[in-house]
């Protein structure tokens, strides 16, 4: 039995959900966690204009009020020529699988989120991503250099695996992020789609696991 989390580090609702998912993983340590990246705006090429930025700030306000997590609005609005392409950051999560899994991988996922939303860093840049991810891995007890991580991130096989994640997200029928699923003996059960508190998630897990016990 395992949890499957489908999300994108540059999805604001996934950012808010991260704290709740970390709390859930701590409560149910016997459940394995698999992370699948969804690529909410993977491959985007359009420059985000002021109207597009303001639209996203509306979502950020709602996420902030529910989660209490910080957002660096000033850095976001000041960034010029920003292309909101989420493929690079999703690929960083896939690259991190070379070094970690489960809760440690989730810590990398959340560090990448924090880098974008709270620190205002450019998480479309491979060198920035490698610095964030390698730092998070070392904090989780996994020794990896920034250069080694960058090589993993830039590798052709990592790019291909990231595309396979996007395809798997679609195959799982995921229509929005974040989505949390439970897999048991080849069958997949919907836990929740969208933001939810850890208490609501745990209650839903108990509802699903009851008939399976």
Q: What does the model show?
A:
The chain has 213 residues and is of the alpha+beta class. It has one domain: Glutaredoxin (3-Layer(aba) Sandwich). It is built from nine helices and four strands; from the N terminus they run βαβαααααααββα. The protein has a four-stranded mixed sheet, sandwiched between helices. Helix 1 links the parallel strand 1 and strand 2. Helix 1 runs antiparallel to helix 5, helix 4 runs antiparallel to helix 5 and helix 5 packs across helix 6. The mean pLDDT is 96.
List keywords for this structure.
single chain; 213 residues; alpha+beta; Glutaredoxin; 4 strands; 12% strand; globular
CATH superfamily: Glutaredoxin
SS summary, helix count: 9
Uncertain stretches of 5 or more adjacent residues:
none
> In which range does the helix fraction lie?
55-70%
Q: Briefly note the structural class of the backbone.
A: alpha+beta
Shape: globular
What CATH architecture label applies? 3-Layer(aba) Sandwich
Report the oligomer.
Answer: single chain
Q: Strand count, sense and closure of the main sheet?
A: 4 strands, mixed
Give the SSE layout.
Elements: E1 2-7, H1 12-27, E2 32-37, H2 50-67, H3 73-78, H4 87-96, H5 102-117, H6 126-139, H7 146-154, H8 156-171, E3 179-184, E4 187-193, H9 198-212
Parallel strand pairs: 1-2
Antiparallel strand pairs: 1-3, 3-4
Helix pairs in contact: 1-2, 1-5, 1-9, 4-5, 4-6, 4-8, 5-6, 6-7
Protein name: DSBA-like thioredoxin domain-containing protein
Domain DSBA-like thioredoxin: 8-205
Pfam family, one: DSBA
